[in-house]
TrEMBL record:
Belongs to the universal ribosomal protein uL22 family. The gene is rplV. InterPro entries: Ribosomal_uL22, Ribosomal_uL22_bac/chlpt-type, Ribosomal_uL22_bac/org-type, Ribosomal_uL22_CS, Ribosomal_uL22_sf. One of its GO terms (cellular component) is cytosolic large ribosomal subunit. Residues 1-24 are annotated as: Disordered. Coiled coil: none annotated. CDD domains: Ribosomal_L22. This is Large ribosomal subunit protein uL22. Keywords: Ribonucleoprotein, Ribosomal protein, RNA-binding, rRNA-binding. GO terms for biological process: translation. This protein binds specifically to 23S rRNA; its binding is stimulated by other ribosomal proteins, e.g., L4, L17, and L20. It is important during the early stages of 50S assembly. It makes multiple contacts with different domains of the 23S rRNA in the assembled 50S subunit and ribosome.
Length: 128
């Protein structure tokens, strides 16, 4: 068990908090695998290049990730006072979310299960 007063424990926990600008989208209606195709393309790139890649990528995930990347850039600019020219995509990943289970009727009274997967997508930026 932790020692010290409750407020002291909270203060210590908040001191260890990650200060890098980020944006998170929960319950995105796409599978992790499909989101990772786009995320792998922008990981480690500077923000302007990443936006260009995402804008001209034909996948559905790229439109969602473009919006998320713009949100992360705005967070860096407004909340942390960082310059857009110095930013790059340090981390981006997709975690598995809940799965909606649906039934598809088939021949002779059978039913096949359709799994509509969701994901939680996170983008973390940093300055060079």
């Amino acid at each position: 068990m932790a020692k010290g007063h409750r407020s002291q424990i909270k203060r210590e926990r908040n001191a260890q908090k990650d200060t890098r600008p980020s944006a998170k989208l929960s319950y995105a209606r796409m599978s992790v695998q499909k989101a990772c195709f786009v995320l792998d393309a922008i990981r480690g790139k500077d923000v302007k290049t990443a936006l260009a890649i995402v804008m001209y990528n034909p996948r559905y995930a790229s439109s969602v990730i473009e919006k998320l990347l713009k949100s992360a850039i705005a967070n860096a600019e407004n909340n942390n006072g960082m310059k857009v020219d110095d930013l790059y995509v340090e981390e981006c990943y997709a975690n598995k979310g809940p799965t909606m289970k649906r039934i598809h009727p088939r021949a002779q009274g059978r039913a096949y299960r359709i799994e509509k997967r969701m994901s939680h997508i996170t983008i973390v930026l940093n300055e060079r």
